[in-house]
């Protein structure tokens, strides 16, 4: 089984490269399931119903979120009606939507995608570690592929989380910093791991936003409007491969490999 995770899609340039490149990548690499983080896909801040539908139409099966999930008001009413659009599971009880989605991949394998958010240098949500424990305990036994998007600021919290769930899920991918880390590996008990997948969007700005305004903000500290950057658009992803009938751990498919994939428009 081959699963693609696309790192944080930022604004129109991020959506554009997904539209141009995803379908071809899915067919050449024979990908069974596509997951992406979409919390910055609306001009860098949040996601709208129209943009979520646009991204699904490009071949993304599940969209995860994070601290920017609620930036666009219209998503609050939409999210409960679109289970493929996730927000972190450890958000306060009563938040719209859900942090887990279960479906069937193109190869017939039942899967679950879980989205949690870290707490270091971020809002004080519920404990993502214990929230994950209870979600995993609630998954049906025939769900054999499980991927977690751990949306967090610090490398240490994501690395600790990877070890915590090693052997209990197929993959943990970090998102949120928009900078790809070079530490992808399969942990000893079979969980594919990367601290951050990086960003799908323009790389000639500051984590996707126009660099002039951001540099000015660091100099004068004044309130400012940030626009999406332009130029050097990349689509940063990881491709996770599992054995179809290989060793299973607690009913879950183990990862065989995790590989970084970086596509560019040029
Ligand atoms: Fe984020």
What would your notes on this structure say?
This protein has 266 residues and is α/β, with parallel strands linked by helices. It is globular. The mean pLDDT is 96. The strands form 3 sheets. Strands 1, 2, 3, 10, 11 and 14 form a 6-stranded mixed sheet that branches. It has a 6-stranded mixed sheet with strand order 4-5-6-7-9-8, covered by helices on one side. It has one domain (2-264): 4-Layer Sandwich (Purple Acid Phosphatase, chain A, domain 2). It is built from 6 helices and 14 strands. The structure holds fe (ii) ion (FE2). Fe (ii) ion is lined by residues 39, 66-68, 151, 176.
Taken as a percent bin, the fraction of beta residues is: 25-35%
CATH architecture classification name: 4-Layer Sandwich
| Spatial gap, N to C terminus | 30 Å
CATH class: Alpha Beta
Major beta sheet summary? 6 strands, mixed
Would you list the SSEs in sequence order as H and E?
EHEHEHEEHEHEEEEHEEEE
Poorly predicted regions: none
Structural class: alpha/beta
Helix content: 10-25%
- Count of helix runs: 6
Number of domains: 1
Considering the protein shown, what is the CATH homologous superfamily?
Metallo-dependent phosphatases
């Amino acid at each position: 089984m081959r699963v693609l995770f696309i790192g944080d899609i930022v604004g129109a340039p991020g959506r554009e490269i997904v539209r141009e490149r995803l379908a071809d990548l899915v067919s050449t690499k024979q990908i069974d399931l596509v997951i992406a983080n979409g919390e910055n896909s609306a001009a860098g801040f949040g996601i709208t119903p129209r943009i979520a539908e646009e991204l699904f139409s490009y071949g993304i099966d599940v969209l995860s979120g994070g601290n920017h999930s609620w930036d666009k008001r219209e998503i609050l009413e939409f999210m409960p009606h679109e289970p493929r659009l996730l927000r972190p599971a450890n958000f306060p009880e009563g938040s719209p939507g859900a942090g887990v989605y279960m479906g069937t991949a193109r190869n017939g394998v039942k899967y679950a995608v879980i989205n949690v958010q870290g707490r270091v240098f971020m809002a004080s949500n519920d404990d993502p570690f214990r929230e994950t424990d209870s979600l995993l305990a609630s998954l049906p036994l025939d769900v054999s592929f499980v991927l977690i998007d751990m949306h967090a600021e610090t490398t240490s919290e994501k690395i600790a989380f990877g070890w915590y769930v090693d052997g209990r899920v197929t993959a943990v991918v970090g998102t949120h910093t928009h900078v790809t880390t070079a530490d992808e590996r399969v942990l000893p008990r079979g969980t594919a791991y990367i601290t951050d997948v990086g960003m799908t969007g323009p790389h000639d700005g500051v984590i996707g936003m126009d660099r002039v305004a951001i540099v000015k903000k660091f100099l004068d500290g004044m309130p400012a409007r940030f626009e999406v950057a332009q130029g050097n658009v990349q689509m940063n992803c990881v491709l996770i491969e599992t054995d179809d009938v290989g060793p299973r751990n607690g009913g879950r498919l183990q990862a065989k490999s995790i590989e970084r994939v970086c596509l560019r428009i040029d």
